[in-house]
Amino acid sequence: MAGRERVVRMSVEQPLWRALRGYRVLTLGYAALIHTLRRDEFERPWVAFAYLAVLGVWTLATLPQVSGAVRCTKRFLMADLGIALTGILLTPLADTHAQMSDRATLPSIWTAGAVLAYALRGGWRWAGFASALVAAANLVERGTPSRDVVHNVILVCVASIAIGYVVEVARASERTLARALEIEAATRERERLARDIHDSVLQVLAMVQRRGTALGGEAAELGRMAGEQEAALRALVAGGLDRRSHASEDESQGALVRVTDTPGEASGSPDLDLRTLLAPHAGARVSFAEPGTPVPLPRPAARELAAAVGAALDNVRTHAGQDARAWILVEDWGDEVIVTVRDDGPGIPEGRLAQAEGEGRLGVAQSIRGRLHDLGGTAEWVSVPGQGTEVELKVPRGKAAQR
After folding, report:
1. Phi, psi of 262 (to 5 degrees)
2. Are 387 and 347 in contact (CB under 8 A)?
3. Judging by DSSP bridges, how do beta strands 286-289 and 326-332 pair with one another?
């Protein structure tokens, strides 16, 4: 990440740093010219020319530092601005009439270069800080500043802050572009891997399924498991790359279990995309339908809701059988999130849920309804014997954010 940030800064800011180097040299020459022409007006000309000599040596010696954010360190910026402020405050010593006239300070417009370096290095906040110091030094030097002095100070402040803001926007745009290019490259790589997998692994699994079904017996069961693995692998290949996942085989169930690392976990975001937590449930017998945009929820709420969905699917496998199909539907209504889990099993007889809770079986009462109650939501069952079961889980987004 640090290397990429360095490349980004060089590509976006290098022309601005080159312009700043040229500006510093030109304004040095300008300051030397106007003070040479006004040398007879100085009460202590040696002060002015001694300062200009120091300023010239400093400007030429530090040109390599004004070449990018890496070499332009905080220590250099502080020293550079210190020289500019020293020149402003020394102006009355060299020219006692400077306070009563609109004569330029010793560093003249070279001071703006020091402020612009802050803008390029740290953005508009740093530029505002440097501009405030320059304004304070001018007020101290002038005593009662004229309209032209106030105008020049405000101009430097506004220009430096604007340039700093533009630099920050350019950096953000460059990072976005770099991320888009990374995603495009990763997508091409995924498509290449998908072709290789299709030509090898998926074809072998499909062949095992066909041959196992034809042979019957234990081979048929092996063929069924190969078919499930083929469907899960196809879903994994087609899944988004931002859902970084790895697969492991559950020997007891013969199913492909995917463990997902969500983007929210890696970036430290306070919200998680619910889709990334529910997508691993999709497989040969579980269909997953999701919105086209992220479904953000606070981390605890997202995890609890995903756990409730997992408990509902466990009930499908336990009570409807391994051959039952299930469907997961995620809906985001803005103020609330609704997840529906439906199956094509035999359904639940009327009163069975209350009976199970009375017998101490708390799968529904605690694993599902209890979790939703803690989130300020609800869990409702609709079941018709012989026509399957539907569980609707509702989580109000406002209450979930308070948990």
Report:
1. -80, 155
2. yes
3. parallel
Residue 373 has pLDDT above 90, yes or no: no
Distance CA 139, CA 143 (A): 6
Q: Give the C-alpha separation, 48 to 108, whole Å.
A: 12
Pair of tokens at residue 123? 């953005």
Q: In terms of Cα–Cα distance, which of 351, 188, 183 is closest to 263?
A: 183
H-state helical runs in 38-146: 45-61, 74-94, 110-122, 124-142
Euclidean distance between CA atoms 218 and 221, whole angstroms: 5
Separation of alpha carbons 119 and 164, rounded Å: 4
- The pLDDT of residue 160: 83
3-state helix, strand, coil in the chain (%, to 5): 65, 15, 20
Cα–Cα distance for residue pair 191/328, rounded to 1 Å: 27
Asked if 343 and 389 touch (Cβ cutoff 8 Å), the reply is yes
DSSP per residue, 21-40: HHHHHHHHHHHHHHHHHTGG
pLDDT of 361 strictly over 50: no
